[in-house]
Structure formats: C-alpha cells, structure tokens
Amino acid sequence: MTLTPLSWHVLARPALHAALQGHESCCLIGPPGTGKSELVKALIAENETVAPGSATRHVLGKTNTPNLMLSGVLRLLKAPPSARVLKQGGDVLMHEAAKRMAITGTSALAMDEAQHASATALFHLLLLRDICATDYTHPVAFVFIGTKGLVDVLTETGQLGQRVPIVVPVPLLDGAEVLAILPSISPDVARVVQRLGKQANASLERDLVDIVGGSVRRLVAITERAVRYATNLGVPLSEAIIRAAMDQQAD
C-alpha cells in the first residue's frame, strides 16, 4: 500500500532520509495510527542500498535497562551477545553493539513505540553513535517513533536538541486528507464513497471522516472490514456494507 503524501511528510521525509544515511537522529511524535511507522518502513525499504542494516525495533515496557536495550540491538543485527558479554554488560556490551553496526554497515536503527523506553536505556543507545564514530569511523543515527510521551523521555536523557536535533510533529489527518488517501488504501471503497459524494444528500463522506477521527490505522481497518464483508456475502460493495463496517469500528 502506497499512501498519498501527507502535509507532515514535507518535514519528515528529508529528516528521515538524513537519519537513514547516518547523519542526524530524529523523532516522529504524534497520536497513534497516524502513519508514522508506515512512512519510516517505506523509506527504509527505499534506502536499502545506503542503509542495509536499518530495521524497526519495538520496545515495550518502562523496565528497559541499558543492557536489555543493547542486547536487543545485537539480536536485531543477528549477533546475540554471548553469556560472557551479557555478564560483563555496560561498556563491553555497548562496544560489541557498535562493532556489529560497523561490520554490518548499519547506518540507522528505527525504534517504534519509543515512548515506552526508559530514559537511561535511550541515553545509552544514543551513546552508540559516538562510539561508532570515534572507534570505527562509522556514521550512525537513530529514528525514534512515538506519542507525545517520547518528548518527556528524550528530555530526561538530556539529549533532545543535541544527539536528537530534529523533532517532526505528526498531526491527525484532516477531513480532506482522509478522503485524499482513501483511493490508495482501498480503491473499491473510494469509488463507492466518491460516487455517493456527488449526490445531493452525501452523508457517507462526512460520516466516514468523523468516525476515522484523523487516524490512518482506523481508516485502513474500516476499509478492510468493508471489503471482507462484501467478499463473504458475495455482493458488490455498497453504502450499507461500508456503514456496517463503520458501525463495527464505532463499537
């Protein structure tokens, strides 16, 4: 699925391109379901030649310690730390992670749901950039993806504006953007909505925009459900089926 460019992509794309080439770290901050992760994954795929080791990593829970974070990086790079390295932890683990990033040519790592990471763990992760640069002459950057709580975590690290100089705010979609990206998400649903939108009493467009609430994720869920309903019933997509999918989302 290729999404239509959104207003915030104008700021996000150059920042992400720079990060994926190991230049400057950045973060995308906005409500859930606004397409942050999807854009990052799409750009990682586009940048495979310049960032072969780039990948997304989901971090859950506030219990993350630096050792757990760095061990996760090594596992992500297909080099699980040995028992000896795990026992030593700290600087040894950090240098192992930095060396692995340099060996694999990994220029960037993206962390999703980063607001759940502890400030201490993120601080140690950011130190990898310095070690990669000084010990291996290898540029590395990070992309942090999260909700507004991520600002607090990064502020606590003392690195917001320093090792993470670029913050891209990601807003909810407005009504025009919801309708603009609909054809790229589901052409079949879009055709029904657009056809009905030309009629005098066109409430489906308005109701769809209202229930989506600016969320790409919610729009995808509704359209997928509508197509599934029509397929299971063996009938063409219609306003009634789309509304049934919308009602289910509301529940």
CATH homologous superfamily of the largest domain, by name? P-loop containing nucleotide triphosphate hydrolases
Order of helices and strands: HEHEHHHEHEHEHHHHH
Percent helix range: 55-70%
What fold name goes in the CATH topology slot of the largest domain?
Rossmann fold
The CATH architecture of the largest domain would be: 3-Layer(aba) Sandwich
Low-confidence stretches: 49-53, 56-63
Oligomer: single chain
What is the alpha-carbon Rg in Å?
A: 21 Å
Sum up the overall morphology in one term. elongated
CATH class of the largest domain: Alpha Beta
How many separate structural domains? 2
The average pLDDT is: 85
Strand order of the largest sheet: 2-3-4-1-5
- Beta-strand portion reads 5-15%
Count of helices?
Answer: 12
Main sheet summary: 5 strands, parallel
Which structural class do the helices and strands define? alpha/beta
* Span between termini: 26 Å
* Number of DSSP-assigned strands: 5
Please give the structural blueprint.
Elements: H1 9-20, E1 26-29, H2 36-46, E2 56-58, H3 66-76, H4 83-88, H5 90-104, E3 108-112, H6 119-136, E4 141-146, H7 149-157, E5 166-169, H8 175-185, H9 187-197, H10 204-212, H11 216-233, H12 239-250
Parallel strand pairs: 1-4, 1-5, 2-3, 3-4
Helix pairs in contact: 1-2, 3-5, 3-6, 5-6, 6-7, 8-9, 11-12
Please provide a written account of the structure.
- This protein is α/β, with parallel strands linked by helices and 251 residues long.
- The protein folds into 2 domains: 9-169, P-loop containing nucleotide triphosphate hydrolases (Rossmann fold); 175-250, no CATH class.
- Helix content is 57%, strand content 9%.
- It is built from 12 helices and 5 strands.
- The protein has helices at residues 9-20, 36-46, 66-76, 83-88, 90-104, 119-136, 149-157, 175-185, 187-197, 204-212, 216-233, 239-250; strands at residues 26-29, 56-58, 108-112, 141-146, 166-169.
- Strands 2-3-4-1-5 form a 5-stranded parallel β-sheet, with helices on both faces.
- Strand 3 (108-112), helix 6 (119-136) and strand 4 (141-146) form a beta-alpha-beta unit.
- Helix 3 (66-76) packs parallel to helix 5 (90-104).
- The longest helix has 18 residues, at 119-136.
- It starts with 8 loop residues before the first helix and ends with a helix.
